[in-house]
Write a structure and sequence with these properties.
about 270 residues; alpha/beta; Rossmann fold; seven-stranded parallel sheet; 9 helices; about 45% helix; NAD(P)-bd_dom_sf
Length: about 270
């Protein structure tokens, strides 16, 4: 059986690195894409020799997507079975406190970058169908809009909608479209401030709110299951599962909680 290939954005650290390791363990070739070249090299060093390639990619650059995917396919032997649209950045705080630059950058990376990735991935996934897959990183923040995370939630609702739309749009080609919806995951993103005006990192806020931080290995296993399974959205972590339950069965209670100072729930 020919070796399969997964192309991963945001592969220099965190979820991207963990998913790269999981698929490499499964015998897949891994295309690692990021703007962080040193981080990509670190990820590649943790994979078996000859089982990966690195591609500098700014997901906001549509033409760069075509180049990176083509180069990955050449390195892998011709085909790409899975494209993992994972690159993203955190942002939090009241919407009136965010700068235009912060908002535009988040929209460009978290949403426009995913849309560009879907466009660029299509011919490769169509060629390797049936069974090929576009996997998108959404978030628990794409289940119910979270106070203090309005822009982030908007991007992740967009990723969720794109996933559902393309799941129908691409069904005739045999391409699966899936999303991961994690809560707070143990990655370097937690050590960032939610916005430029904040001097408190996201990790401190999560702990202060009494929310759990899920090991990144759980996301990697969820990605493997999503690619090989039939669920459109895969929830990861207690926060995501509780939020999904409340939004479906207790929407009024959830709204009251959010309006009374509920903390943002996100990746």
């Amino acid at each position: 059986m020919a070796r399969k290939t997964i192309f991963i954005t945001g592969g220099a650290s965190g979820i991207g690195r963990a998913v790269a390791q999981r698929f490499a363990q499964g015998g897949w070739f891994v295309g690692i894409a990021d703007i962080n070249e040193a981080g990509m090299a670190e990820t590649a060093a943790q994979l078996p020799t000859g089982q990966s390639s690195c591609h500098r990619l700014d997901v906001r650059d549509r033409a760069a997507w075509d180049t990176a995917l083509s180069d990955c396919a050449k390195a892998a032997g011709g085909q790409i079975e899975v494209v993992f649209n994972n690159a993203g950045i955190p942002i939090g705080g009241g919407i009136v406190d965010l700068t235009a630059e912060e908002i535009e950058r988040t929209l460009d990376i978290n949403l426009k970058g995913v849309i560009f990735g879907a466009q660029a991935a299509f011919p490769w996934l169509k060629a390797s169908a049936p069974g090929s897959c576009l996997l998108n990183t959404a978030s628990a923040a794409g289940i119910y809009g979270s106070p203090g995370a309005s822009v982030y939630s908007a991007t992740k609702f967009g990723v969720r909608a794109l996933t559902e739309s393309l799941d129908g749009e691409w069904a005739e080609y045999g391409i699966k479209v899936r999303s991961l919806m994690p809560g707070f995951i143990e990655t370097p993103l937690l050590d960032h401030a939610p916005n430029r005006a904040s001097n408190e990192d996201i990790r401190t806020r999560v702990r202060g709110a009494g929310l759990e931080i899920t090991p990144v290995s759980e996301v990697a296993e969820a990605a493997w299951a999503a690619v090989h399974g039939d669920k459109v959205h895969t929830l990861v972590g207690k926060t995501a599962r509780r939020l999904a339950f409340a939004s479906r069965w207790m929407p009024g209670t959830l709204r009251k909680q959010m309006r009374s100072g509920g903390r943002p729930l996100g990746k």
